[in-house]
C-alpha cells in the first residue's frame, strides 16, 4: 500500500491536482484510509524515505517491479541449477552468481526490455502471480496463517 500511496500522491503532484504543501495532510489521510494508521510526525509519514527529497518522482514503484522480476528469475534459476537451495544454505552463492552472469547480466543490454529478457530466459512474460505466490507463502509461514 505504501507504493500505491506514493504513486497516487506523485500522480496528483505531476497533474497539478495538489501542491507540495498538501502532501503531508494527504499522506496522513491515505494512511488512515488504507491501513488504519495514524501518522504522528512527517518523518514517520511522507518524509520516511529519501526518494522525494532527492527528486526521485516515479522511482519508488521500480522496487516492486524489481521484486516481481527477481522472483520469476529466481524461480527459473531453481529449476535450472541442481540443489540451488542447498548451495545457498551453505553460503555458496557463486553457483547462482555464475548462472545470473551468464543468463541475465550478460544478456540484459542485448534485449529491448526487461520483459523481453525475462521472456527469453523463462519462456513467459513478466508474471506477477509468481510474486503473489511468493509473498503468500512467505507471510503464511512467518505469521502461521
TrEMBL record:
It comes from the Eukaryota. Coiled coil: none annotated. GO terms for molecular function: metallocarboxypeptidase activity. Pfam families: Peptidase_M32. One of its GO terms (biological process) is proteolysis. Gene3D superfamilies: 1.10.1370.30. InterPro entries: Peptidase_M32_Taq. This is Carboxypeptidase.
Amino acid at each position: 500500500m505504501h507504493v500505491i500511496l506514493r504513486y497516487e500522491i506523485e500522480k496528483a503532484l505531476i497533474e497539478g491536482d495538489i501542491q507540495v504543501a498538501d502532501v503531508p495532510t494527504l499522506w496522513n489521510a491515505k494512511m488512515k484510509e488504507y491501513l488504519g494508521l495514524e501518522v504522528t510526525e512527517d518523518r514517520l509519514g511522507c518524509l520516511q524515505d529519501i526518494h522525494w527529497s532527492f527528486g526521485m518522482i516515479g522511482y519508488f514503484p521500480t522496487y516492486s517491479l524489481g521484486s516481481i522480476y527477481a522472483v520469476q528469475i529466481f524461480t527459473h534459476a531453481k529449476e535450472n541449477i541442481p540443489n540451488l537451495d542447498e548451495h545457498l544454505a551453505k553460503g555458496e552463492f557463486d553457483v547462482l552468481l555464475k548462472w545470473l552472469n551468464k543468463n541475465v547480466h550478460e544478456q540484459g543490454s542485448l534485449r529491448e526490455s526487461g520483459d523481453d529478457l525475462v521472456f527469453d530466459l523463462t519462456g513467459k512474460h513478466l508474471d506477477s502471480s509468481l510474486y503473489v505466490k511468493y509473498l503468500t507463502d512467505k507471510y503464511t509461514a512467518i505469521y502461521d496463517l
